[in-house]
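EI: anyone free to look at a 143-residue chain?
SC: sure, send it
EI:
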Amino acid sequence: MTTPDPSELPFFVYGTLRPGEANHDLFLRGRIRTEAPARLQGAVLYDGPGYPYAVEEPGAGTISGELVTALPEAYGRLLGELDRLEEYVPGDPRNLYERVARDVVRTDGTAVRAWVYVAAPPVAARLRARGRRIESGDWLTRR
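SC: here you go
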């Protein structure tokens, strides 16, 4: 497993930040060094109001997305902007998402530690009870 500096982990994106989706160019264009297909295991995907939620479910599924490595000079600002986009504030009980470090797997089988925005516990509980799961685990196939 490749473990980058924990303060500057790459990002695993699985929804509106993926190539061709609404937020990709707004947030990532000109700020990333690499972008490659990857998968998050032990999670399932739920449809949200125009964006998806990853819900951690060990052994239950796999989510498709991209592993994005920011340019070093853009990292701090990008991290702050992505936290705002995902309405994530460390320790805030009103968060829709939590930013967590998880291993994601590249297509060559290499595991990489990355930041992933997953549904906050209260949101995850609501989704498990009455959410619409995206069975493929791929936001791009939801249509």
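EI: The chain is about 15% helix and 40% strand.
SC: 👍
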